[in-house]
What we know:
By secondary structure, this protein is α+β, with helices and mostly antiparallel strands. It has eight helices and 14 strands. Strands 1, 2, 3, 4, 7, 10, 11, 12, 13 and 14 form a ten-stranded mixed beta sheet that branches. A two-stranded antiparallel sheet has the order 5-6. The protein has a two-stranded antiparallel ribbon with strand order 8-9.
Amino acid sequence: xxxxxxELEGVLLxxxxxxxxxxxxxxxxxxxxxxxxxGHAGTLDPMATGLLIMLIGKATRISQYLISLDKEYEGTIExxxxxxxxxxxxxxxxxxxxxxxxEAEARQAMQGFLGDQYQTPPMYSAIKIGGVPLYKSxxxxxxxxxxxxxxxxxxxxxxxxxxxQLDFRLRCTKGTYVRTIAHDLGQRLGCGAHLSALxxxxxxxxxxxxxxxxxxxxxxxxxxxxxxxIPVHAAAPSVAL
Length: 241
């Protein structure tokens, strides 16, 4: 009797490249592993790079647990230009001069985003209202009323001051739109802004240093990939499956 090949199971940490959707990453892993049961715990916009927690096989059952974990990011905000998507992938809708801002003033404005708050999701997002993703309405030029969502920002630190650019490090709860924080910071400073670069560096205890690029994963053999998988009980020790 010929046994069916063993299906892989566990958590795989991937360093997402730019210009890839989270679904693109799933598709490439499905081809490499020759299996369909692959998901992820939290998306990244195509422009963004960094840590994606990929769930292989039965590990898809712990998706909700891992999605709920806090996230950390590094990125760049460009002052003076507002885009319709709030990031560099969008069309510029307004340009304003950047005021003679000091580093101390920038830090002070950023500190105003710390703590518990409600954030209105951007129109260019996958949130569905009336069964229709918001980005589809946005592409038609429609503005849809959105319910603000509760978020928490634990850290929002300035790491490089080089006007019109501000580099930052951010730690926040799930569901936080970093590009909306960039947009809102520009509004507070009176010149507008958009998110020009973003990299997720950590999700709770999972760090980008543990991740492999897609190209590196595709170059590995299946046994080598299996050795890279984090067991379900180690990835989510408090979840009973």
